[in-house]
Design goal:
By secondary structure, the chain is of the alpha/beta class. It contains 8 helices and 12 strands.
């Protein structure tokens, strides 16, 4: 470890001219799993969207560096090509585009060349089997008629095939039953290795049962008020955030 992948420096972010993030500093090295927890409205999703470059989130101060490049002003698609992936809290449906075509097009854009259909079909089937995802879903329109669990599995499927350097999971475990959480967390565990990193934003510790975070950050009122190891998750689970609210 120690190979710096993401560096967020004094990041201030506003939405509709309201400041949400108030000076975030975060460094993620290759091979690490980081978890961000915090109260509702603390700015967790804002942090994820700012790293991804969502134009609805305005960086008013600070910088985001990724893999040695300042990406603060880069467009979302450029960040995707650079190796950042984000799994959404509420994935939308895309009528008219099949899961297979969507992921194959995205992969082609990321690697900069067309992928052979047969080889891609084989990879897609293998990854879907790993996620206990019925392969018939490959020919269905993206998230059209999918349950919450199926939408989240589809996000993890995209992540595993796109193979990003940094995967940001924004409450991927919310609204899932126990089996779906296990399948999703196992998918993240299979994906993660010493050359990539994962940033998990969550309210719960269920997705962390199969994942051992290196660092846990508590985000309150737009600031990281505490950073610790995995034991911090259990502490929050038992005692909540009251002890940290005064630090923000």
């Amino acid at each position: 470890m120690g190979d710096k992948l993401l560096q967020v420096s004094d990041l201030h972010v506003s939405v509709d001219e309201k400041e949400i993030l108030k000076g975030i500093n975060l460094t993620i090295n290759k091979g690490e799993i980081h978890v961000v927890m915090g109260t509702n409205g603390a700015g967790k999703s804002t942090l994820a969207n700012a790293i991804m470059g969502n134009p609805q989130y305005t960086v008013t101060k600070g910088n985001v560096w990724f893999d040695g490049q300042d990406i603060t002003d880069k467009a979302v698609n450029d960040r995707g090509k650079a190796g950042i992936f984000m799994s959404f809290q509420s994935p939308i449906s895309i009528p008219g585009i099949t899961v297979e075509n969507f992921i194959r097009t995205a992969k082609s854009m990321v690697i900069g060349k067309q992928i052979r259909a047969l080889a891609f079909k084989r990879e897609l089937k293998a990854k879907m089997d790993e996620l206990s995802f019925d392969t018939s879903y490959a020919q269905r329109y993206v998230n059209e008629g999918f349950s919450g669990g199926e939408r989240k599995k589809n996000e993890i499927l995209q992540m595993s095939i796109l193979d990003p350097k940094l995967a940001i999971l924004d409450e991927t475990d919310s609204g899932l039953d126990v089996d779906a959480v296990r399948i999703v967390s196992e998918g993240v565990s299979r994906f993660h290795n010493e050359n990539n990193s994962v940033l998990i934003i969550t309210h719960h510790n269920s997705i962390l049962q199969n994942l051992k975070p290196d660092f846990v950050h508590i985000l309150i009122n737009g600031k990281i008020v505490k950073t610790g190891d995995a034991s911090l998750v259990n502490e929050i689970e038992q005692n909540g955030y009251d002890a940290y609210k005064t630090l923000a």
